[in-house]
Amino acid sequence: MSGEMIDAQRVAAEALLREARLLDRGDWDQWVAMYQDDAVFWVPAWLDEYDVTEDPATQVSLLYHDARRGLEERISRIESRKSITALPLPRTVHQVTNVEASSIAPDEISCESVFSVYVYDPRTAKGHSRHGRYQHTLKRHGAEWKIARKIITLANDNVATVLDFYSI
User: Fold this and answer.
1) Which domain holds residue 77?
2) Region for residue 51 given its phi and psi (left: phi exceeds 0; alpha: psi -120 to 50; beta: otherwise)
3) Nearest Cα to 76, choosing from 67, 62, 65, 86?
4) pLDDT digits (tens, 9 = 90+) for 26-40
5) How many independent structural domains does the chain possess?
6) Global pTM?
7) Three-class secondary structure of residue 166 per DSSP
8) Residue 75 DSSP SS3
9) CA gyration radius for the chain?
């Protein structure tokens, strides 16, 4: 593996692990700051057993934000305590593994990984897990890397409870 590929793998792994840690801590300001202003955050729906939706403008998505502002608005609702589905917030533990850089350019890295999120809801005293695949595109902004695109494909998409950015 080339030095460039090793560096890209390290950058990607560090970014994804930091994102998971910030979500678990509920450090929303630092988490959303990882995203560039025009970042896409997308959870496509499954069309059938083999294919997910490909166009959030014309097909169903479980979640879709076409800019960081949508994530900021969701955070604002949580922090204002106006979101009844987030009172109290579930406790989460994100695990991210198998991080692999799939495309590298001087100022852009595309990577794929797998994840599991363990969610405990103190309102119901029940836990559940979600798992699937992440696709991230990271872009360099000066000395730091920001998330330009995140696609979350849930393997277990039959969601019996609230689905939000912090629980996937």
Assistant:
1) 3-167
2) beta
3) 86
4) 999 999 999 999 999
5) 1
6) 0.93
7) helix
8) helix
9) 16
The Cα 103–Cα 33 span in angstroms is 23
- Running DSSP on this structure, what letter comes out for residue 162? -
Q: Are 100 and 112 in contact (CB under 8 A)?
A: yes
Q: Specify the CATH number for the domain of residue 138.
A: 3.10.450.50
Structure tokens at 166: 């912090």
CA distance 54 to 45: 9
Q: Is 149 exposed, middle or buried (0-12, 13-18, 19+ CB in 10 A)?
A: middle
Is the peptide bond preceding residue 88 cis, with omega within 30 degrees of 0?
A: yes
Distance between CA atoms of 92 and 27, rounded to whole angstroms?
Answer: 12
**Across residues 41-61, what is the average pLDDT?**
96
**More confident call, 67 vs 8:** 67
